[in-house]
Design goal:
Largest sheet: 5 strands, antiparallel
Number of strands: 20
Distance between the termini: 21 Å
Structural class: alpha+beta
Strand content: 25-35%
Helix content: 10-25%
Order of helices and strands: HEEEEEEEEEEEEEEEEEEEEH
Radius of gyration: 28 Å
Shape: elongated
Oligomer: single chain
Number of domains: 2
């Protein structure tokens, strides 16, 4: 019965972490470029009371076909980012860009570190640099001239501008996308940004539309891939699992109470 108390506690802790993950997904249902997380669980070690395959006794040479193993609970194994495509929303903003397919925009932090994002809602700073909402520059750097009256981004990432008095657009840069062997292994650092890790592998830089990279859609942003109805169902399941597991702890406590009240 004491074993059941500890086992039930691991289950309640696991469902609490599950609820935390669901809460974060729902909180970011309207965050551009956000990718939902899924938590994976695995069972803990087992206490072996009778070893499977041990001799049954006597001189028959028979073996026990099944042993006695009691599980000791559950633990979280991983929280995995699901990089499925989010729904596109048309904005008609010339610096809003969405990636149709695989890949990440490259962004340079003030300390020189390159990070990666799926959020393509870019802006211009006072110098004409294309930056994120936090002021981080797009990499490779693209500077929009002050006299530009129109900005065009093609599917292959070519950025062109039209200036007053010119009829032909002028190319000012090219957007490149980063791909990873295992994008689920990227580190999440907040602000819709990721950093590479040993698990994700090194970034492979490609021109959009080449070597498996997606293409650029100008005037669109990629919404979060969170499905609110699915998350609500997962939340209900987590709540009910939490309640049921708490009943096992209550049941073990009741059994201990009965045992402690025994009289000779």
């Amino acid at each position: 019965m004491i074993r059941a108390l500890h086992t039930g506690a691991t289950g309640m802790q696991a469902q609490q972490l599950n609820m935390d993950t669901i809460s974060n997904n729902l909180s970011n249902a309207n965050t551009a470029g956000f990718k939902r997380s899924r938590i994976d669980f695995e069972d803990l070690m087992y206490q072996t009371l009778k070893v499977v395959g041990s001799p049954a006794g006597g001189s028959s040479g028979n073996e026990i076909p099944t042993g006695i193993e009691v599980g000791l609970g559950v633990r979280p194994a991983a929280t995995q980012k699901i990089f499925s495509q989010g729904v596109f929303q048309q904005t008609d903003n010339s610096l809003d860009m969405a990636i149709e397919g695989d890949g990440f925009f490259q962004v340079k932090l003030p300390n020189g570190t390159t990070v990666y994002t799926r959020n393509g809602s870019f802006k211009k700073d006072s110098q004409g640099n294309v930056v994120t909402s936090d002021g981080y520059k797009l990499e490779p750097s693209i500077v929009v001239p002050a006299e530009a009256i129109d900005i065009s981004v093609s599917a292959d990432g070519t950025v062109s501008v039209t200036t007053q008095g010119q009829t032909e657009p002028q190319t000012i840069g090219n957007i490149q996308l980063a791909r990873f062997v295992n994008p689920a292994g990227l580190n999440c650092i907040g602000k819709n940004l990721f950093t590479e890790s040993a698990a994700s592998g090194t970034a492979t830089i490609n021109t959009p539309g080449e070597n498996g990279s997606g293409t650029i859609a100008q005037g669109f942003i990629e919404n979060s891939n969170v499905q609110v109805v699915e998350e609500m169902v997962n939340m209900i399941i987590a709540q009910r699992a939490y309640e049921i597991i708490s009943k096992t702890i209550q049941g073990a406590d009741d059994m201990l109470q009965v045992a402690s009240n025994l009289r000779r």
